[in-house]
Amino acid sequence: MIPSIALLTPSQLLNARSTLKAIADSSGKPIVVNPMPGALGSLSETTIEGSGAFRLDVNLIKKIKFHEGKELQFRADAINLLNSPQFGFPDLNINSTTFGRVTDAGGNRMIALSTRISF
After folding, report:
1. What is the number of helices (H) and of strands (E) in the chain?
2. Where are the domains of the chain?
3. b/e string for 84-93 if b means 16 or more Cβ within 10 A?
């Protein structure tokens, strides 16, 4: 039985209805346990960190001068040029079935082309 639930009263079956959960190691010793009702937990939000992120953004500009004071400019912007995934943060809710798992990712490549005439 989870340590937090063992301390709850059996009155009105409160200990049987509790949704408090704990995570144990391979020997059964609790590692992460929900705090008792009314108590603050001691696990910092920075204890579990997400994966690192890398994104390469690039832009290229080509300017062509015409007559005096007139210019044509071509521009290409690439966001996340290498199309590397940007993973979200792990689920830190101990009562969730996805606790500690990363369940979302993004990071699509985007390319924007533009032309500008200055005069």
Report:
1. 2, 7
2. 1-43, 44-119
3. eeebeeebee
